[in-house]
Amino acid sequence: MNLTFFKYQGTGNDFVMIDNRTKTFPKQNTDIISHLCNRNFGIGADGVILIEEDENSDFRMIYYNADGSETFCGNGGRCAVAFAKQLHIIDNKTNFVAVDGPHFAEIKNDIISIKMIDVDTIEVKKDSVFTYTGTQHHVELVDSLDNYPVFENGKKIRYSYNDPGSNVNFAEMIDDATFRVRTYEKGVENETLACGTGVTAVAISMHKIKKTNKTQINLPVEGGNLKVSFKENNGVYTDVYLKGPATFVFKGEIEV
Ligand SMILES: N[C@H](CCC[C@H](N)C(=O)O)C(=O)O
């Protein structure tokens, strides 16, 4: 079949976006998803995102990692909002639904803010934090991310968690409002240039272990700059917003 796709990237986390309102995309075929994401034999991306109709919200976003596993994706959510606007499904504000539930989002001066789920499962361990921001995230502080072995150390930690494993975020404290982040992503099985649910996990974890008392955090990543803001009350994090750019790269067609 001939497939029209739109390529988007959010701070370097990149996605093949498909308007699947006709419900014709073969979702069960993980080989097709992997092929689309393959950077040599396909289009190349960290994941595939489908936009579908939803009776209770503006649209449904479905995210698949490059290995075909389904999860939520924060940067992907921001790109889905930009894509929905390009398709004239929405204007600058939207309520949409994803695998982890409903999300509000808005576009202001080309910056897309997406409301993330409330975060209340935060497991503080000796040298790391494990939390859930729409998917599983391991967070640990390191002295410097320059030349840090993200792939090697990330892969080891990723598989140390019981199935489905965990994404792994290494954070370097720049100041009390800024944490640089590099992430090894499960399902991509590599370092990505940014991870939205990952930087959200870092911001909340750093507040939880009292490395910062700020509730608006800057998170420079390899592919750009993200921001996370939140409220905290008795250890529960609400009004969690992930903010950053989402860019249309090109439109294309591929035979699958
Ligand atoms: N890049 C995504 C995270 C995808 C998470 C996925 N790798 C998984 O949990 O399996 C983000 O911006 O949140």
From TrEMBL:
<comment type="similarity">
    <text>Belongs to the diaminopimelate epimerase family.</text>
</comment>
<comment type="subunit">
    <text>Homodimer.</text>
</comment>
<dbReference type="Pfam" id="PF01678">
    <property type="entry name" value="DAP_epimerase"/>
</dbReference>
<feature type="binding site">
    <location>
        <position position="65"/>
    </location>
    <ligand>
        <name>substrate</name>
    </ligand>
</feature>
<comment type="pathway">
    <text>Amino-acid biosynthesis; L-lysine biosynthesis via DAP pathway; DL-2,6-diaminopimelate from LL-2,6-diaminopimelate: step 1/1.</text>
</comment>
<protein>
    <recommendedName>
        <fullName>Diaminopimelate epimerase</fullName>
        <ecNumber>5.1.1.7</ecNumber>
    </recommendedName>
</protein>
<feature type="site" description="Could be important to modulate the pK values of the two catalytic cysteine residues">
    <location>
        <position position="137"/>
    </location>
</feature>
<keyword id="KW-0457">Lysine biosynthesis</keyword>
<feature type="binding site">
    <location>
        <position position="167"/>
    </location>
    <ligand>
        <name>substrate</name>
    </ligand>
</feature>
<feature type="site" description="Could be important to modulate the pK values of the two catalytic cysteine residues">
    <location>
        <position position="185"/>
    </location>
</feature>
<keyword id="KW-0413">Isomerase</keyword>
<feature type="active site" description="Proton acceptor">
    <location>
        <position position="195"/>
    </location>
</feature>
<keyword id="KW-0963">Cytoplasm</keyword>
<feature type="active site" description="Proton donor">
    <location>
        <position position="73"/>
    </location>
</feature>
<keyword id="KW-0028">Amino-acid biosynthesis</keyword>
<dbReference type="GO" id="GO:0008837">
    <property type="term" value="F:diaminopimelate epimerase activity"/>
</dbReference>
<feature type="binding site">
    <location>
        <begin position="196"/>
        <end position="197"/>
    </location>
    <ligand>
        <name>substrate</name>
    </ligand>
</feature>
<comment type="function">
    <text>Catalyzes the stereoinversion of LL-2,6-diaminopimelate (L,L-DAP) to meso-diaminopimelate (meso-DAP), a precursor of L-lysine and an essential component of the bacterial peptidoglycan.</text>
</comment>
<dbReference type="InterPro" id="IPR001653">
    <property type="entry name" value="DAP_epimerase_DapF"/>
</dbReference>
<feature type="binding site">
    <location>
        <begin position="74"/>
        <end position="75"/>
    </location>
    <ligand>
        <name>substrate</name>
    </ligand>
</feature>
<feature type="binding site">
    <location>
        <position position="13"/>
    </location>
    <ligand>
        <name>substrate</name>
    </ligand>
</feature>
